[in-house]
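Page 42, continued from yesterday. The earlier attempt failed because a stray header line got pasted into the input along with the sequence. Redoing it now with the clean sequence only.
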Amino acid sequence: MIYDLAILGGGPAGYSAAFEAVKLGLSVILFEKQELGGTCLNRGCVPTKFLAHIADIYHQSYNSREYGIISEKPVLDYLAASEKKEEIVSELRNGLEQSMKLKKIEVVNGYAEISDSLHITCHGETYEAKNILIATGSIPAEPLAEGAVTSNEILELKSLPKSVKIIGGGVIASEFANIFSFLGIEVTIAIRGERILRKWDKEIAVALTQNFKKRGIKILTNQTPEQLSEKTADIILSAVGRKPNLCGVNTSLIETDESGGIIVDRSFRTKTENIFAAGDVISKSRMLAHTAMEQGKAVARIAAGKESGIPSAVVECIYTSPEVASVGFTEAEAKEKGVQFVSAKSSMRSNARTLISDLDRSFIKLLADKSTRKLIGAQLFCNRASDIADELALAINHGFTVEDLLKAARPHPSFCEAITDAAEALSEKLNEV
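This time it went through. Structure tokens are written below.
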């Protein structure tokens, strides 16, 4: 049989492409050497967000007296929590497997290799396909310190250490610092540069830094390789990013950049016409599960002769407390692109839901094009940021003006009503220029 689409990798890009392809009437075969769901479901997004949820519950129960709730000091059974984590991951993975069977998508469990532009081998058998999608994802970068663990191994702990040193100041490092801090563990972040979240809006980075320091998290900047390697905690977590996973990929059929990411065009084609790549494995990937999903769907549509239809503005999130979300331009990016813009910010100090939740400093910042008044960017540092930022992504993708944003009657009390406050402030500033 000749398949319309063969997919290497069963993570978000791979399974999303498979579901979209069968919906469009294509025959699909998917190869996965480990578990369906990829890093996101099994070793990334889902288990870490579960731990963040557990940490938040523990932290709130530990500090419940200020809400008038008097109880004994809570005790965390981390082994039980870990087992619950695996139970949730397993349930989601089983659901994904059942969906594959229901949609009659052929799944081959095993290490697959691309032989040429039309053939893939696995378990000694050869499969032929008109189109091939490389969706093999990414793996943690090599640890910077001897004996350090990566984000994969840290999730396998069955008991908690008393102290953790985290090398790195990006998203993964920030999320684990937040989790361990709330679980009562002594946390130190060690970075080579001047600040954490160096690729994010500076105001977000400063706010999260202040939040962390208030909670007792130490942040060591400008660290030398020798200082990074020093074992000053029970466990060292090396969270210095991820790199494209090219296992099974015939590199003669593709081109890669200096980081090993596969170079693709706007249609996610590699240098070989019928071989595509999507998700973490591509060059300059944002390494976001939801971005990978959209890219996978786009490839399926292209393989079916349709328009790709991928959105331009996508929300990026950090699941700390408060949460962080960013979509569209930051102020630095807008300046770099020469965009004339106006920005305005709404502090959450007067937001009822924020006061009820007793959260620290938080805000929503909006950016609009000075001439068109269209929203071009948003940065959020507040509770439920990951949930409410999608409204702003939709607004950017559809060219909404500040006035369009103000047409919505947002519920009160809610976190999202701060969007109205920020939009009103932005409208006033635009009227002044």
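Notes: Residues 180 and 187 are 7 Å apart (CA to CA).
Reminder to self: strip header lines before submitting.
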